[in-house]
UniProtKB/TrEMBL annotation:
<keyword id="KW-0472">Membrane</keyword>
<protein>
    <submittedName>
        <fullName>Uncharacterized protein</fullName>
    </submittedName>
</protein>
<dbReference type="InterPro" id="IPR001046">
    <property type="entry name" value="NRAMP_fam"/>
</dbReference>
<feature type="transmembrane region" description="Helical">
    <location>
        <begin position="85"/>
        <end position="104"/>
    </location>
</feature>
<keyword id="KW-0812">Transmembrane</keyword>
<feature type="transmembrane region" description="Helical">
    <location>
        <begin position="116"/>
        <end position="136"/>
    </location>
</feature>
<dbReference type="GO" id="GO:0034755">
    <property type="term" value="P:iron ion transmembrane transport"/>
</dbReference>
<comment type="similarity">
    <text>Belongs to the NRAMP (TC 2.A.55) family.</text>
</comment>
<dbReference type="GO" id="GO:0015086">
    <property type="term" value="F:cadmium ion transmembrane transporter activity"/>
</dbReference>
<dbReference type="Pfam" id="PF01566">
    <property type="entry name" value="Nramp"/>
</dbReference>
<dbReference type="GO" id="GO:0005886">
    <property type="term" value="C:plasma membrane"/>
</dbReference>
<keyword id="KW-1133">Transmembrane helix</keyword>
<feature type="transmembrane region" description="Helical">
    <location>
        <begin position="50"/>
        <end position="73"/>
    </location>
</feature>
<dbReference type="GO" id="GO:0005384">
    <property type="term" value="F:manganese ion transmembrane transporter activity"/>
</dbReference>
Length: 173
């Protein structure tokens, strides 16, 4: 006589939530002061005119992040190599630092990496909530936003410099 055991499949939304935590940690890279400053300065000087640069920059950043991830997986020495190029740290020291970093992150899992992801996620939500509240208070024109997002122009004085600053800040992480 045989017994059938029914295995319950994990819902799709729970599988998706498993990938949200690392995404939140990566999103913190876009909340650096340089990015915020260049975004705020460009918005104050040019209103919606440079929104198309934000769309273009985020597209480039996505492509570069994907290429960087593939390169890091292929070379294995990504962190040590980067430390060597940026700070002239010898490769053996870079390998030790990368290994120490890996051990530290794995050690943090004992206390629950989800707690760290949750804490950072809450901070990101606070920043996002503040931006959303300011956006509601400013009551932007939807028509001007769409036009700025999809109609490229660099007419105003200093727009080219601000566009370069935006691209640099968006692609940097």
């Amino acid at each position: 006589m045989s017994t059938l055991v029914q295995i319950q499949e994990t819902p799709r939304w729970k599988k998706l939530l498993g990938h949200v935590g690392p995404g939140i940690l990566v999103s913190v890279g876009y909340l650096d002061p340089g990015n915020l400053e260049s975004d705020l300065q460009a918005g104050a000087d040019h209103k919606y005119e440079l929104l198309w640069i934000v769309l273009l920059g985020l597209t480039f950043a996505f492509i570069i992040q994907c290429c960087s991830a593939r390169l890091g997986v292929a070379t294995v020495l990504g962190t040590a190599f980067a430390l060597n190029i940026l700070f002239r740290i010898p490769m053996w020291s870079g390998v030790l630092l990368a290994g120490l970093n890996t051990l530290l992150l794995h050690g943090m899992q004992r206390y629950g990496i989800r707690k760290l992801e949750g804490a950072i996620g809450m901070l990101v939500m606070v920043v996002g909530g503040c931006f959303f509240a300011v956006m509601i208070k400013a009551s932007p024109s939807a028509k001007e936003m769409v036009t700025g997002m999809f109609v490229p122009k660099l007419n105003a004085k200093g727009a080219t410099i601000d566009a370069i600053a935006l691209l640099g800040a968006l692609i940097m992480p």
